[in-house]
Q: What sequence folds into this?
């Protein structure tokens, strides 16, 4: 089911498994792009999503704490699901109000929460049809297992499925929140 | 048997034909790019003069590494997912041979005169040495952890490989293949190239800079800051061009002063980069945008763009100057 995001059932996993070495990575970088039409002008949508320190529009994110606002090298730690839930640490490396776009990468995540390594992502709001918006969320990443012959839950397909699930869940919720406009 | 070279007919004839024709000196006429598209598992053959894709060749196993060898009438690709090196005819673009390698084959380079192909094994800290014709396994060279890029000196008197997780470059003498130097460079070196000054330019993904290494002494003679996550380096008209993967730029630096001059905006996740032999054009791939950018080194501006398959990497020497009147992939 698309809406059920990987991070949510990861909550059920008992004690965290040690994060794999963030340096090594698998042989083939993967990419995912998810685009949704939103029934609101780009400026309004950007006002909702264009703050690196506020991911409250994503249903899987319980809370976000961070430093540096929207400056380059700003950081945030997302807590997923509920207080005390698993976390994802991220850093901002591009931000443009003019282009309505920001880019960030994950600095720390347990692969049992999100089965990726070397993950970077862009979120962009573009003009859509009839005065609406197109929101595009793109990610580039390697699978969770850095070595040869990955187990099934840490292979390329698992990584693509998990990231797609995160993007779909976020953008579907965003779409729904503007649906009455 | 773990190594399985498969030789097909006609390759020697093709090689002989290509060696006999002098190369064209006309600017971009007869210049082609062989771009490995990792996500769509194919190779785009691009005509740089007409700026069109003339052929899409299916290559299984997510190819990234590539090396063109006119001397052997071939281009070689490396598919890490299927752990296979493929040798294709430049003339027909059909496969001549392939070899299954254990581990994680990644970067590739050819010593044309010596008739050897060198392939980095990402997972086993070594470089495979293969016969350039049959792809049969000849030897292994021990490197640091996670070797990626491989280069062979133009005079074929040395080769080098960057080991990403060892922050190190290994330089070997040729033809002896004895270790000459282990050089500590910046953090996480991946791509590697040899400048017209015959020095090594090593792209350090972790420290966002280029280590310039003297291959004779093994000394790092300069460290040049570039954009975020540099992957490849190309050279033209006294300049070096690094692809900055996270910055979506190419950083231009002077080979004379080894200092940064300017940045050029290109597509997303720029990766493989090489200049044409006459230095009139720099070609770089954009992994996320599925394009190559064509850059005029004189003006340092983007003068064209060609669409490719999904996820163009072109990790290696991917440009080919065809003998006059010969277009690759023509004779079938």
A:
């Amino acid at each position: 089911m698309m809406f059920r995001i990987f991070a949510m059932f990861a909550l059920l996993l008992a004690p965290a498994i040690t994060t794999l070495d963030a340096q090594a990575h698998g042989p083939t970088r993967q990419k995912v792009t998810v685009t949704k039409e939103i029934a609101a002008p780009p400026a309004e949508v950007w006002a909702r999503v264009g703050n690196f320190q506020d991911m409250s529009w994503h249903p899987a994110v319980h809370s976000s704490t961070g430093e540096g606002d929207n400056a380059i090298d700003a950081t945030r730690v997302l807590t997923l699901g509920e207080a005390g839930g698993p976390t994802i640490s991220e850093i901002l490396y591009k931000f443009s109000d003019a282009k309505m776009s920001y880019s960030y990468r994950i600095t720390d995540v347990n692969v049992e929460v999100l089965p990726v390594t070397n993950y970077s992502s862009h979120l962009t709001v573009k003009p859509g049809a009839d005065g609406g918006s197109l929101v595009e969320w793109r990610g580039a990443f390697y699978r969770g297992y850095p070595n040869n012959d990955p187990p099934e839950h840490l292979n390329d397909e698992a990584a693509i499925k998990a990231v797609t699930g995160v993007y779909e869940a976020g953008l579907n919720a965003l779409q729904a929140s503007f649906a009455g406009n | 048997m773990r190594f399985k070279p498969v030789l097909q007919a006609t390759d020697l004839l093709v090689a002989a034909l290509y060696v006999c024709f002098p190369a064209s000196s006309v600017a971009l006429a007869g210049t082609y790019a062989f771009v490995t598209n990792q996500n769509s598992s194919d190779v785009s053959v691009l005509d740089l003069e007409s700026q069109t894709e003339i052929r899409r060749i299916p290559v299984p196993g997510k190819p990234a590494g590539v090396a063109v060898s006119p001397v052997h009438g071939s281009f070689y690709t490396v598919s890490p997912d299927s752990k296979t090196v493929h040798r294709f005819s430049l003339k027909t673009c059909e496969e001549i041979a392939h070899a299954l390698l254990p581990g994680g084959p990644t970067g590739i380079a050819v010593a044309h005169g010596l008739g050897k192909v060198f392939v980095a094994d990402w997972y086993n800290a070594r470089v495979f040495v293969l016969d350039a014709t049959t792809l049969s396994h000849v030897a292994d060279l021990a490197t640091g952890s996670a070797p990626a890029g491989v280069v062979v000196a133009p005079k074929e008197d040395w080769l080098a490989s960057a080991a990403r997780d060892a922050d190190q470059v290994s330089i070997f003498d040729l033809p002896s293949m004895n270790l000459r130097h282990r050089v500590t460079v910046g953090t996480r070196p991946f791509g590697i190239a040899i400048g017209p000054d015959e020095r090594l330019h090593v792209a350090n993904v972790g420290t966002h800079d280029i280590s310039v290494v003297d291959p004779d002494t093994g000394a790092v003679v300069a460290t040049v800051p570039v954009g975020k996550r540099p992957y490849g380096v190309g050279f033209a008209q006294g300049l070096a061009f690094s692809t900055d993967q996270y910055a979506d730029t190419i950083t231009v630096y002077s080979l004379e002063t080894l200092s940064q001059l300017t940045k050029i905006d290109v597509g997303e996740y720029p990766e493989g980069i090489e200049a044409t032999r006459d230095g009139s054009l720099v070609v770089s791939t954009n992994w996320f945008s599925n394009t190559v950018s064509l850059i005029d080194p004189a003006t340092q501006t983007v003068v064209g763009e060609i669409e490719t398959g999904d996820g163009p990497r072109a990790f290696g020497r991917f440009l080919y100057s065809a003998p006059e009147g010969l277009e690759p992939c023509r004779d079938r």
User: Anything to note?
Assistant: The domain at 6-321 of chain B is CATH 2.130.10.10 (Methylamine Dehydrogenase; Chain H). Helices of chain B lie at 11-20.
